[in-house]
Amino acid sequence: SVPGALLITANLRNDAPFAQPYPVVSITLSDANGKKLAMRRLRPTEYLGDGATLRKGIPSDGSAALMLEVEDPSGKAVAFEFDFE
Fold first, then answer.
1. Contact indicator for 5, 72 with CB cutoff of 8 Å
2. Is pLDDT above 80 for 67?
3. For residues 4 and 72, is the Cβ–Cβ distance under 8 A?
4. Which residue in 5, 80, 4 sits closest to 38, CA to CA?
């Protein structure tokens, strides 16, 4: 829905025997040479629209799908990297 945005999807899996809180997600965009172009940290409240889902966390032996629209500030991003805190 955002012109020129990149659509990034991921699936978070919880293999623990208990529910886990949603993580802070860091996304780093890089160019073809591996040069970092942009980085953003998203708190769960920024990528989840449902407070009830946030409070429940990721269920034991469950998964959660993420879909993020990210603006490429230079138009040169060809790779991205996730990090979870």
1. yes
2. yes
3. yes
4. 80
Answer whether 27's CB lies under 8 Å from 40's CB: yes
Q: Is 34 left (phi over 0), alpha (psi -120 to 50) or beta?
A: left
pTM of the model: 0.81
Burial class (CB in 10 A: 0-12, 13-18, 19+), 24: middle
- Name the 3-class secondary structure at 10: strand
pLDDT tens-digit map of 12-29: 999 999 999 999 999 999
- Say how far apart CA 55 and CA 18 lie, in whole Å: 14
